[in-house]
Amino acid sequence: MSNTILPPQQTTVRFSVVILTYNREKYIKKQLECFSSIPNIEIIIVDNNSDIDYANREAQHYDNVRVIRLEKNYGAVGRNYGIVAARAPYIITLDDDVWGLTAEELNKAEEIFKKNPDADCICFHVTDEQSGKTTNWIHHCHKEVFELQEFETYEISEGAAVFRRTCFEEVGLYPESFFISHEGPDLAFRILNADKKIIYTPEIEVIHAHAIEGRASWRRYYYDTRNLIWLAYRNYNKRLLMKRFILQFAAMLFYSLRDGYIKYFLKATYDGIKELGVMSADRNPISSETYSRLKEMDKNRPSLLFYIKERILKREIKI
């Protein structure tokens, strides 16, 4: 597909909600019920070639729902197809097991964008369906301190975020070759390099069920490793390569050895390096100005010892 998004059409739709789904029928029903009472939105379900065409069946009950059923599973970057088809000035991207948005929260998103004209993306506060606690915390600061604060970040919760349409017009879509993993950081670096912001807010909250359907056990060990190599090659400058990539790559090696998936790590490393030549046309290392912004945001980053305790010594990592 094209790497660009077309200009918006004349429409009264305020938000386009792009929901990516794969073999999770019950969650689609719950999401559509949540959105049924919100006016001036369109819902685009991108079906990654599920075994059963449940999305089209459920969409028949709603006037504002469209379905894009893909001919194969494109992984997380399948949401590109929904983004291209979206008509509204703001595009919400949700995973199929994430729900809970209200009309008031959509109004809040508009307010935040108006107050921050240089913001291209707003990340939502994600809570666990069972415990009600903050989950999927990807931001580089202490969750317990910052989960109820608004701040600038360089991470994107792709399955729980809202974008300006102009973001994709200016910096492009998710990299199709990634399939899943690190597609969010790749887009984030391009947003920051365009001198725009990504904001986390606790005022827009969604619930995550952590559905396990459609997830292979080896997934993160292969794709996290391969795509880390591609992410670094495409976006890191020399300082980030030395400061961050080496530690990230070493961590993936440790995870793979610890959990018995070393063969997937080795294959991912081989595949990642093999394709670097193809990636050369998309290489655009962050500028010195962007690097300075990253350093400023990292002032609240937890210590290396914290990450060792939380990520290296614990296996209970939900992704």
Task: Produce the secondary structure layout.
Blueprint: E1 15-21, H1 25-35, E2 41-47, H2 54-59, E3 65-69, H3 79-85, E4 90-95, E5 98-99, H4 103-115, E6 119-128, H5 143-146, E7 151-152, E8 160-164, H6 165-171, H7 183-193, E9 197-208, H8 219-235, H9 238-259, H10 262-274, H11 276-279, H12 288-297, H13 304-312
Parallel strand pairs: 1-2, 1-4, 2-3, 6-9
Antiparallel strand pairs: 4-8, 5-9, 6-8, 7-9
Helix pairs in contact: 7-8, 8-9, 8-10, 9-10
Could you describe the 3D structure shown?
There is one protein chain. The protein is of the alpha/beta class and 319 residues long. The protein folds into two domains: 15-208, Alpha-Beta Complex (Spore Coat Polysaccharide Biosynthesis Protein SpsA, Chain A); 219-312, no CATH class. Helix content is 42%, strand content 18%. It has 13 helices and nine strands. The protein has helices spanning 25-35, 54-59, 79-85, 103-115, 143-146, 165-171, 183-193, 219-235, 238-259, 262-274, 276-279, 288-297, 304-312, and strands at residues 15-21, 41-47, 65-69, 90-95, 98-99, 119-128, 151-152, 160-164, 197-208. Strands 1, 2, 3, 4, 5, 6, 7, 8 and 9 form a nine-stranded mixed β-sheet that branches. Strand 1 (15-21), helix 1 (25-35) and strand 2 (41-47) form a beta-alpha-beta unit. Helix 7 (183-193) packs parallel to helix 8 and helix 9 runs antiparallel to helix 10 (262-274).
